[in-house]
Specification:
Helices cover 77% and strands 1% of the residues of chain A. With 494 residues, chain A is an all-alpha fold. The mean pLDDT of chain A is 89. The longest helix of chain B is centred in the N-terminal third of the chain and has 29 residues. The chains are: A mainly alpha (494), B mainly alpha (222). Chain B: Keywords: Cell membrane, Membrane, Oxidoreductase, Transmembrane, Transmembrane helix.
Chain lengths: 494, 222
């Protein structure tokens, strides 16, 4: 069993960091509080993962928190993405402040909000109770709304409005689902309430008709927050308008946390209704998401929106892995979450740097980046290749795992084939758009800045993120045991 | 409380919930919809109070009082202030709704039928006076959804969202004797926070757009 103090640290560390930002935020040295907090968080997550692998799952904080292989894996994902995002933050704000687009106070407020955001995500994956999980995810919506609208431009305000309205509505559906599940569980369900573990154990006692309605609402609602079609419309707006470090966290970690809720619901759904029901629902949502991403990427003119649609694609693939539901597919889906988090966070930071250099997020206005900023361009290029699922990056391994499991599962062959075709289309489009940005001869336009750009922390973070993603692709190493036991929990085998 | 009185009081509260939802769908003046929303908050509090009188639970009485304060007092007041701030020179009406009144009311009837069809298993699981009112709660949820997607002004959308949330809260209290004060508290807190966020955003919207008309929101699309 894990030491109780340690289990509370994922909430306490960012909370203390948020306070520190509130107190010392305007001093230059305070810029690195966020990164320090994230590194500490990563160390805590690794320790907790080790404790869970060696001595099994356990409750903490009077039963409010539950730590098993799935939740500590998600802690690792959040911490890893947070390290990238918060290390990129000081560089991002140095450029913003130099351009006069932000002041030290905005930077401090941003730092505090980001720490609160991380704490809410950690609370979501550690919550022992579906109600608490719901509250934590709703809290992320509220905190990030202020971050998305940070720039206060017309577009940023519009994005924040759509984000809050759509996500709050989606999450309200999930709340209705949770209330109905509670109803089913309190009426002849063995008194499990909304406790995730007890609910999974006693799911066979739940009334199937009521549970079916509850599961549809829960998966649609949390799916909306995870950026899955049909309620994905907020995502491209929010991700393209948010400041780069926030986009990195939202795309890399928040979508995964919302999908974590779907995974927990699926365990209950499978036990109560058989594997077919949640599978059908998730397959439809996965293919719809992939189709949306493929069609809207083809004519895309904005590179930040391009990355956002790529997130819809990857969450679609994760949903497909969950739909397939074999242990291999679920483990691959979890690995995909981590690989996508690292690569996408790195790329969003890179895109933020490109935006600062060129002043435009239009693909057409970025030309020959490789000639101006070779390291940045190289990193971005490799990052796009990572997203398309090329080796050695870990997304190759996880997509291969999902595809193999899908083709081996009866009834999932056609869906897997359709998904692979869509992934190919998306990969081609991504490479086409980014090659237009990165390659070519520099334009001979007077006024276009031609001075070579010096390598800065953002670029270092970009490279480190991709290296981590590649290392994971070569070997998952000690994560192997963790992934296996997490997959066992999620397919209901343990 | 006798069985008949309890059932009648419950039906009265549920009826008021449904009626106010229909009124919001029907009327276009923003000031009027905010008043009706406050009345619906009272109906919701009444519903919970009837349940509390039946169960005699202390928690439920607190929840009823809290709902009255939040949904009939604080939230409408926040909307009211937002409306007053934007009133100068603006017509306080939903001027360009996507669906006209007659079609809205027809759609409402269809949505009510849908709610009754969907909630049959919910009623059958534990038939009682309380669970028989679940379809009403679900109808309010669907009507809220409808308002949310067919109205163009920011404040109207907020009203739609709160309508949706009132319906969900009603279903929550009707389905279980003890929702768990903690979850209920969290839910109310979240509604409050969501509205605060949206309030801040409507203010910013006015600063940047000079209006809260969501028709202006069309820079971002593919």
């Amino acid at each position: 069993m894990t030491p109780p103090v340690l289990s509370v640290l994922p909430l306490a560390v960012p909370a203390v960091a948020a306070l520190a930002f509130a107190v010392f935020g305007s001093r230059p040295a305070a810029r690195w509080i966020g990164a320090a907090s994230s590194v500490a968080l990563l160390a805590v997550a690794v320790t907790l993962a080790y404790a869970v692998v060696t001595s099994g799952p356990g409750a903490a904080l009077g039963g409010l928190l539950w730590l098993d292989a799935v939740s500590v894996f998600m802690l690792l994902v959040i911490a890893a993405v947070a390290v990238l995002a918060t290390s990129g933050t000081p560089g991002h704000f140095r450029a913003e402040i130099a351009e006069g687009r932000a002041g030290p106070r905005t930077a401090a407020r941003h730092g505090a909000l980001v720490q609160a955001f991380i704490a809410a995500m950690n609370a979501a994956v550690l919550a022992a109770n579906l109600g608490m999980l719901w509250i934590a995810i709703e809290a992320t919506t509220i905190i990030t709304a202020f971050l998305v609208g940070q720039r206060r431009s017309r577009a940023a305000v519009e994005a924040a409005w759509k984000y809050v309205v759509l996500c709050s509505t989606g999450i309200a559906l999930a709340l209705l689902g949770a209330l109905l599940l509670n109803y089913a569980s309190s009426t002849g369900g063995g008194g499990a309430g909304l406790n995730l573990v007890a609910l999974a154990d006693s799911a066979h006692l739940l009334d199937p008709d009521v549970t079916r309605i509850a599961v549809v609402l829960l998966i649609l609602g949390f799916g909306a927050k995870a950026g899955l079609a049909p309620l994905h419309a907020w995502l491209p707006d929010a991700h393209s308008q948010a400041p780069a470090p926030v986009s990195a966290l939202m795309s890399g970690a928040l979508l995964a946390v919302a999908f974590y809720a779907v995974l927990r619901v699926k365990v209950v759904a499978d036990a109560a209704l058989g594997a077919g029901f949640a599978r059908a629902l998730l397959t439809v949502m996965a293919l719809a998401s992939l189709a949306v991403a493929a069609t809207l990427l083809l004519a895309q003119r904005d590179y930040k929106r391009m990355l956002a649609y790529s997130s819809i694609e990857h969450l679609g693939l994760v949903a497909l892995g969950a739909a397939i539901g074999a242990p291999l597919a679920v483990a691959a889906a979890l690995l995909h979450v981590l690989g996508h988090g690292l690569a996408k966070a790195a790329l969003f930071l890179g895109a933020g740097r490109v935006l600062q250099l060129t002043g435009s997020s239009k693909i057409a206005s970025v030309r020959a980046l490789a000639a101006r900023a070779p390291v940045l361009a190289g990193g971005a290029g490799l990052g796009v290749l990572a997203l398309t699922g090329l080796p050695p990056f870990s997304l190759f391994a996880s997509e291969l795992g999902i595809a193999r499991a899908g083709l081996a599962t009866p009834g999932m062959g056609w869906a897997t084939t359709a998904a692979l075709l869509l992934v190919l289309v998306i990969a081609g489009t991504l490479v086409w758009h980014s090659s237009r940005m990165l390659l070519g001869a520099p334009a001979d336009v007077p006024g276009a800045a031609v001075a070579p750009v010096r390598t800065d922390t953002t670029v270092v973070v970009l490279v480190v993120g991709l290296l981590a993603c590649a290392a994971l692709g070569v070997t998952v190493g000690p994560l192997d045991t963790l992934l296996e036991s997490a997959a066992d929990i999620l397919v209901g085998a343990s | 409380m006798t069985e008949t009185l309890y059932a009648q009081a419950l039906n009265l509260a549920a009826g008021a919930l449904l009626l106010t939802a229909m009124l919001i769908l029907w009327r276009r003046e923003l000031a009027m919809t905010i008043r009706v929303l406050a009345a619906q908050g009272l109906a919701l509090a009444l519903l919970v109070a009837v349940l509390a009188a039946r169960e005699g639970g202390f928690e439920l009485w607190i929840a009823a009082a809290g709902l009255a304060l939040l949904r009939a007092g604080l939230l409408p007041w926040l909307l009211w202030r937002a409306l007053a701030e934007s009133a100068d020179g603006q017509p306080a009406r939903e001027t360009r709704p996507l669906v006209d009144v007659a079609s809205s009311l027809l759609a409402a009837a269809a949505l009510a039928l849908l709610a009754y069809a969907v909630s049959r298993p919910l009623v059958e699981l534990a038939p009682s006076a309380a669970t028989r009112a679940i379809p009403v709660g679900l109808t309010v949820v669907l009507l809220g959804f409808f308002v949310l997607v067919t109205r163009r002004r920011a404040l109207s959308q907020l009203v739609g969202f709160l309508l949706l949330d009132n319906g969900i809260t009603a279903v929550g209290f009707l389905t279980t004797e003890s929702v768990g004060l903690m979850v209920e508290l969290g839910v109310s807190l979240d509604v409050l926070l969501a509205v605060l966020v949206l309030r801040v955003l409507t203010t910013r919207m006015r600063e940047t757009f000079g209006d809260t008309d969501l028709d202006e929101l069309r820079e971002l699309r593919d």
